[in-house]
């Protein structure tokens, strides 16, 4: 599977629509929180309205902190946060808070296309020299891996499943704008209730 | 003005008795007792934040996982939270912030005044219910009212500990 991932874009990196599902693998291994826009669409494409996933549609910068709260509340589950580079840059201090929490059941997949895809594909700081893996390491995240090539996807998939976290996997992907997705469910109250019903057994 | 070692302990116990098990905080002199008690209590998580808005998202995540979390912060952090409170407005997540006030009654630092004055209108504009404590005898009842509104009625709630209650910082 990994060998088939295309290399595209002006930055000559992996195709998003192939690389993200490949590195996530079976999303049912996790409770998932995604950022707004790109990573929400990535997860929606994997499974629309999955009841183990909460997809942001706004509140930019919330995903890592929300995943942290979920991981604190559910210490026996592995929590996966999927966030874009722009989303993480807006609240990068949240990684320091993850470190300070001392929890081990949180993995963060940062999907870096070096672009603000939702607002016109403007470049982000990661296209100008910012390395968010170095940032994560510097802020104290225990396990950090950068994945830039198809033959590294499998190792990244395993890394996300480490139980001695926190873990940060930095997936460098193509800056090509992905095709417009069909509209998804933006009703956060509906998705909260669905998530809690499925995971907690009550409202 | 009330003695923090007394009201801080009463407020902390009221929250824990109400089922709160996660305390997310930005360091603050007014919350010193509460923060210390949460750090020393094995029954709860005590999480230091780098900015208040992290706490808005963290408490929503805790709710997804079935736990009750509160955000301890000072009034100056209110502005940092506003867009993040879209989460509570759209998702009907419970939210409870305990906010120590600056910039109002008896303030001596002018830098605290603009945000202090803006706390209530900002919070109300984004849909947060605002409750205030001015006297020690109001603390427990108002805290329980705030918890009911947040955790049973799925509202976003801010409990303001006013400067009449906590006192104005001396310079």
TrEMBL record, chain A:
SUPFAM superfamilies: Thiamin diphosphate-binding fold (THDP-binding). GO terms for biological process: small molecule metabolic process. It comes from the Bacteria. InterPro entries: THDP-binding, TPP_dependent_decarboxylase, TPP_enzyme_TPP-bd. One of its GO terms (molecular function) is carboxy-lyase activity. Keywords: Decarboxylase, Lyase. Residues 57-169 form the Thiamine pyrophosphate enzyme TPP-binding domain. This is Thiamine pyrophosphate enzyme, C-terminal TPP binding domain. It comes from Thalassobaculum litoreum DSM 18839. The lineage of its organism: Bacteria, Pseudomonadati, Pseudomonadota, Alphaproteobacteria, Rhodospirillales.
Automatic annotation (TrEMBL), chain B:
Keywords: Decarboxylase, Lyase, Pyruvate. Gene3D superfamilies: 3.40.50.970. InterPro entries: THDP-binding, TPP_dependent_decarboxylase. GO terms for molecular function: carboxy-lyase activity. This is Sulfopyruvate decarboxylase, alpha subunit. It comes from Thalassobaculum litoreum DSM 18839.
């Amino acid at each position: 599977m990994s060998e088939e991932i295309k290399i595209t874009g002006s930055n000559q990196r992996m195709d998003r629509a192939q690389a993200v599902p490949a590195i996530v693998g079976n999303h049912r291994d996790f409770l998932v929180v995604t950022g707004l826009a790109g990573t929400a669409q990535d997860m929606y494409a994997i499974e629309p309205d999955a009841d183990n996933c909460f997809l942001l549609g706004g509140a930019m910068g919330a995903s890592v902190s929300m995943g942290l709260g979920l991981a604190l509340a559910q210490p026996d589950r592995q929590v996966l946060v999927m966030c874009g580079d722009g989303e993480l840059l807006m609240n990068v201090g949240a990684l320091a808070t993850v470190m300070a929490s001392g929890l081990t059941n949180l993995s963060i997949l940062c999907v870096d296309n070096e672009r603000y895809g939702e607002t016109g594909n403007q470049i982000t700081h990661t296209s100008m020299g910012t390395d968010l893996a170095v940032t994560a390491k510097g802020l104290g995240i225990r396990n950090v891996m950068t994945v830039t090539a198809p033959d590294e996807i499998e190792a990244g998939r395993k890394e996300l499943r480490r139980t001695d976290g926190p873990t940060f996997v930095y997936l460098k992907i193509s800056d090509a704008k992905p095709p417009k997705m069909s509209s998804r469910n933006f009703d956060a109250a509906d998705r909260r209730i669905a998530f809690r019903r499925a995971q907690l057994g009550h409202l | 003005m009330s003695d923090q070692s007394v009201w801080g302990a009463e407020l902390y116990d009221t929250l824990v008795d109400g089922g709160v098990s996660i305390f997310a905080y930005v360091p603050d002199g007014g919350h010193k007792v509460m923060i210390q008690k949460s750090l020393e209590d094995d029954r709860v998580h005590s999480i230091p934040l780098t900015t208040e808005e992290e706490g808005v998202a963290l408490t929503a995540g805790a709710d997804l996982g079935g736990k009750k979390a509160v955000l301890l912060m000072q009034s100056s952090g209110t502005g940092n939270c506003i867009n993040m409170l879209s989460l509570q407005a759209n998702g009907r997540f419970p939210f409870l912030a305990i906010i120590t006030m600056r910039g109002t009654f008896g303030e001596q630092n002018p830098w605290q005044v603009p945000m202090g004055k803006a706390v209530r209108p900002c919070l109300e504009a984004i849909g947060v219910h605002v409750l205030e404590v001015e006297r020690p005898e109001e603390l427990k009842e108002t805290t329980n009212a705030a918890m009911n509104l947040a955790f049973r009625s799925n509202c976003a709630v801010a409990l303001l500990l006013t400067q009449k209650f906590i006192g104005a910082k001396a310079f």
